[in-house]
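Two proteins, back to back. First:
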Amino acid sequence: MIFNQDGSGIWCHNDSGDQSRFFLINTQGDLIAEYYLEGANFIDVEDIARMNWKGENYLCIADIGDNLAKRELTSLYFVKEPASDITKRDEKFVFAAEDIFKITLKYSDGPRDAEAIFIDPKTFELVLITKRELNVRAYAVPLMDTNTQTFKKSHILKDFIELPLAFVTAADISRDGSGILVKNLLEVHYFPRKDKEHVLKALQRPSIKQSYFPEPQGEAIAFSLDGSRFYTTSERPLGLEAYIYQYKLIK
């Protein structure tokens, strides 16, 4: 999950088994709109992020889930962030195939399951955090080819650090890049980031554990636009209702 440009709505998605689409909801959970991606083949979407490039906002839909560690390639789908009107209800839109940019990811040492990504607004690096290791891995990879100033269509994930966490299900970075949230099934951790500090170095310092009440299969987290709060939500295991929870960030 991630907030839209003015903070009035939330971009979100379903897990595996759904169509190639994502949603805009308001902060009460009402459906505003559905967005379909023509020609895309979602397998297991697990996170959504934002990137600002040349004055345009883009959404990144991360099809990175791999419960059985069998996918040779996982995918990121980029689309321009749509304008949003939260007074609407149940609208449907389609992104044409030519308006979708796809990037593939491959781990250098074989497939892994992951559910958490964010894009560093300072460096345009993709940060991906795996899920199932006793000490999960955080990978950072530049999305841009520095020679051509264009985005590469494929990346090998090989450089990583380990975090003393397991079962990480979501992550987000504040809009100004000054802090990072990492969530697992039971806890939320905040990593403050110093000016000009690389994001992986920030993740290696001690975190500030947040007040959080675990949800049934809680797998999403997002900063508020001003970075003073964070929000979580969950899947709907066994048909249970999903709710949006708000917490004050502890710094």
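And the second protein:
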Amino acid sequence: MNGPGLRAAVPDPRVLTRICMLLGCLVLLGGCARNELVVLLEDADGGTGRLDVRHADQQTTLDRPLAAARVSVLSDLQPVAVTAAQVRERFQDALAAQPAPESRFLLYFQTGSTELQSRSRTALQALFDEVGRRPAPEVLVTGHTDRVGEIETNDRLSLARAERVAQLLIGRGLQGDIVSVAGRGEREPRVPTADGVAQADNRRVEVTVR
């Protein structure tokens, strides 16, 4: 059960204030043809990256939260100071158009099976709630195993675990074409172990909701 590729949320191009993702930077652009303001914001993980802004033969670098530059065809490129409140006021349309940050959930399984451990009940309900809150969710479900058993067997088991969670989501009304599943076998343990070691934290499914 393989879903389609992830879709990018694109704001209405008619809105003069707009938002774009550049090299891991969250950048707001606002203004008109004669006066453009560029503001660098933190991304969902708290990073900002680095953005070089060029105008004619001038250049300035934005590399911290709320770093900003004003570009004018009538004058030049100028670094400017902005506050979070000013950004919220000026770019409210662009900020409202951002997709919600992705959420991640861990579900743990009984050894050698697709049965969830009891400790995963709370996380499973939280997953259902998160999917229900989003108007157009996209879900990636990735299964894993510990290192007990053969590699080929664990590949099949990890995929079966992912498919089990996907079916639980579909049973709650989620459309199957927005759920992608994958099995990684024993290749990506949360807790590194020697071969043949049973480790409960590695028998899991990781779910990413966008």
